[in-house]
Amino acid sequence: MRALTSFILAAFLGGAGAIQRSLLVPAASSNQHQLAKIRTTARKSTLQGDRFTKKKQDNSTCPTYGESQWTGTVNVRDGHDLFYWFFESRNDPENDPIILWMNGGPGASSTLGLFDEIGPCWLLPEVDKAEPNPWSWNNNASLVFLDQPAGAGLSHLADGLTLAAREEDTAQDFQQFLNIFFSDVFPAKQNLSIHIAAESYGGHYGPVYLHHILESRRFDSKTAFWGNIESLILVDAVIDFTGPFVGMYELFCDDRQKKGILNATACEQIALHLPELQRLGESCQLAYGESAECNAVWDYGDRYINAAYKAEVAAGRRHTQNSKPTSKEVDSLASEEDANLIYVLVNKKCDLKYSYLDCMDPCKGNVTSYLNQEWVKKALDKDPSFQVDLMGRRFFATFSQGALWKPTTRELVDVLEEHAAEDSVADIKLLVMNGNLDPLVTTPGTKWQYDRLKWTEQAEYAIKKWQPLPAALAATGEWKATSSGRLAFVAVDGAGHTVPGDVR
């Protein structure tokens, strides 16, 4: 059986012909190749002085199969230093594409994606120990894990400076990181294909950052990044909070899969409030940006749509990031085999004193505990007194003043349609992956959202039939894509809010 996400990735990024024909998308368009000829190098950074650090890591902190790895920081502006962890491909590092991964939050560290999802090593549960990950995405691509905005995770924000409060505050920092990383830190990589992957709240980062890069190119800004960005990969990513709430009724209340998540009374209440939720969502789209209408979508949905499921979490019967039962529910399952299958999330480690989102999966490694060990901090050039905050709670406070709830659908459409512009400056495809048991960014709601995304290929995409994933894969699910391959969506059974870490 083949690993799911690595197969999807190989197909989407243009792997071997047989893989490519079996799923998803064609090879890069002629327009993409034409663009690559026009601009093949990243533009030199405008910053002077000490712009970056770069340290070769051995195999101790993140054990791998011997591929090279580096950590360091890039100074994107005064007092703003973004941390990166770079791993070369296990296959052909001189020619394989580069995937830049960002976790969401806002303010979450991308080391979560490194150690618990797609990285070359993963953490073992219950012990502070890492081992090589045979299913890492760097089997066929080099990986960059980026902690941003400045102050998130292992990145640094100088004392006295203000935390970011919106993606627009940090879009230029992201672009400057790309410029310095590819022109100065790893100049030998600057002509390779680049794919931007973003998870969860990364559904805001990815579209806004790429839109900013497109705008910089259109105006031929001195800071424009001209590297060969070929795709955006959104993993359990929110682009508008209306969709995830809309999908909660189907996920929690449609019992064809015998999930039995919510009772009839709770489901009746959700159904009663869905029309108003959708009306608020339409108002948010009309107002767009940081508006009271968009704040109202979250407030209403959290109060009337998600309340019953949150009560299940508080009672220890469900988990915040995967709607499978916790261990307290396993006794009621039909067989020991079913119990072993479901026994993946145990609520005992959920600490709700900070936030509903702080419940982490105890069957994955504890990245916070691992990175806060003195020997690890020394290897990463961090002061012994430095305490890693991987969830970025400080950013939730600043972003929740308005930017947190706004949609990014217009920016996403801009990215999708730039290839057709008369003086096109990019040709970027979109891959969406979603876990079918994700209670935060629900698959039914995300499907609903992309069917309604207003772009030139909407009609074709909306009527496309969902197809089962190939039987040779180690997981089940379904997919559909436009004939151009410009938008592809993969829905994965058994996975929650972190698809690559839930189903390998």
TrEMBL record:
Does the record bear Transcription in its keywords? no
Q: Does the keyword Protease apply?
A: yes
**EC number(s) stated in the UniProt entry for this protein:** 3.4.16.-
Keyword terms: Carboxypeptidase, Glycoprotein, Hydrolase, Protease, Signal
GO biological-process terms attached to the record? proteolysis
Q: Which InterPro entries match?
A: AB_hydrolase_fold, Peptidase_S10, Ser_caboxypep_ser_AS
Q: What class of enzyme is it?
A: hydrolase
Any Pfam family from its record, for instance, is: Peptidase_S10
Indicate the secretion signal residues. 1-18
Spell out the molecular function terms from Gene Ontology: serine-type carboxypeptidase activity
Gene3D superfamilies, from UniProt? 1.10.287.410, alpha/beta hydrolase
Q: What's a single GO CC term here?
A: fungal-type vacuole
**Similarity section:** Belongs to the peptidase S10 family.
What the entry lists under PANTHER family is as follows: SERINE CARBOXYPEPTIDASE CTSA-4.1 (PTHR11802:SF113), SERINE PROTEASE FAMILY S10 SERINE CARBOXYPEPTIDASE (PTHR11802)
Task: Quote the protein name from its UniProt record.
Answer: Carboxypeptidase
* Species assigned in the record: Conoideocrella luteorostrata
